[in-house]
Amino acid sequence: MSVPVLEAWRVSKHFGAEKAVDQVSLTVEPGTAVCILGPSGAGKSTFIRCLNFLERPDDGYVFIDGDPLGYERVGDTFNEVSGRKLSRQRQRVGMVFQQFNLFEHMSALENIIEAPCGVLGTPRKDAIEKGMSLLTRVGLANKADSYPRELSGGQQQRVAIARALAMEPHLLLCDEPTSALDPEMVHEVLAVLSNLVSEGMTMIAVTHEVGFAREVAHRFVFMERGVVIEEGPSSDLSTERVKEERTRSFLAKVL
Ligand code: ADP
Looking at ligand 1, which residue's alpha carbon is closest to its atom 23? Predict the structure, then answer.
């Protein structure tokens, strides 16, 4: 049996007295795409941020390729790792944000090669070659020298996806990747993500795009009030097929 790319085990995160994420577990096998759905405030974003320690869980563990994130396993004990080791562990997990988060003073290509050159020490020439092939993959080879302000939201998000891929992540996390986009640009970003899934990228996406979740992802997770209410194959994402009443009433509102 293959080792899951991600295994979250009883991950919890509190903000003050509020349990934003309450003992959420999730296992994602290689090549699987999972969409996390749920109402605003359900803890979806906090949970996905816990998966790469942008939010450090208060409790629980996150395993990437079987290795505990933030810890080093010595026999049966988990010892916390230093910041530098944690950074190295996190390199296996790429992230795409709602607001793109590109470096405004860098061109599209510079945004993409920054981490490979700065963090991995990839020679600039090789990073540029790979960066160009990634830009081609997201349909933006002609925008290599453009700055974020010169690009549409959809183009910026596609550069952000290429930037995440430049680190060759084993897992790609997407936190509402199309929520900040004008409706006509949603499709171009979903098409890029859909291609990645069909090429076998392991992905977890928080999204309100139920059509994408049903047609492109393999599985869905429905969260509310910090807990998983239901999970299942994405083909079950319809008001007729989901099992839980709360999932059904959510779908009835958004479909
Ligand atoms: P969702 O992504 O499902 O909309 P979030 O994970 O953003 O939900 O939020 C879950 C809950 O945690 C919300 O009540 C939110 O207000 C709270 N929350 C999220 N981030 C923080 C934070 N940095 N500080 C305090 N409360 C937060």
Answer: 15
